[in-house]
Specification:
This protein is of the alpha+beta class and 149 residues long. The protein is 38% helix and 16% strand. The protein has a 4-stranded antiparallel sheet with strand order 2-3-1-4. Helix 3 packs across helix 4. The structure holds cytidine-5'-diphosphate and magnesium ion. Cytidine-5'-diphosphate binds next to loops.
Length: 149
């Protein structure tokens, strides 16, 4: 089953949005298979955003995700990578659809509440950055048969 890596960024934790955002993914039907509250160090932050190295927003973005605890999560489901990106909305909350997480909870691109993997390959890379294999749990979830065939 497809997995994605989602991170509730420091602004989401500080603003008390953790429960509301997790509820959206639970309500959608996604399955939580890994979760931890962590403080990201510089080495991890730089590896997380390595595709953006050299860009103007790289340093501020790296510093931001190190600034306060984040919630790192792995969610599972059919097409969950694309579904989660749709639910997050576009990168800039100022122009994100107001029905999306960034559109509902953000005002500025530098404080856009949530990170989500942009492809299955990115998800695999990012999950491995944040989780050991034994921290991803396999279990049967009640009602799975009512979500898809
Ligand atoms: O997070 P997403 O994949 O939607 O966007 P990205 O283009 O991969 O950029 C990664 C992160 O860098 C964004 O989520 C923002 O936190 C930050 N960023 C920024 O602060 N200013 C920009 N002009 C672009 C990105
Ligand atoms: Mg990205």
């Amino acid at each position: 089953m497809e997995k994605t890596f989602l991170m509730l960024k420091p602004d989401a934790v500080q603003r008390g949005l953790v429960g509301k955002i997790i509820t959206r993914f639970e309500d959608k039907g996604c399955k939580l298979v890994g979760m931890k509250l962590i403080k990201v160090d510089r080495s991890l932050a730089e590896r997380h955003y390595e595709e953006h190295k050299g860009k103007g927003f790289f340093e501020p973005t790296v510093n931001f995700i190190m600034s306060s605890p984040v919630v790192a999560m792995v969610w599972e489901g059919k097409n969950v990578v694309a579904i989660a990106r749709e639910m997050m909305g576009s990168t800039n909350p100022a122009s994100a659809n107001p029905g999306t997480i960034r559109g509902a909870y953000g005002m500025d691109i530098s404080r856009n509440v949530i990170h989500g993997s942009d492809s299955v390959a990115s998800a695999e890379r990012e999950i491995a950055l944040y989780f050991r294999p034994e921290e991803i749990l396999e279990y049967n979830k009640a009602g799975e048969e009512w979500l898809s065939e």
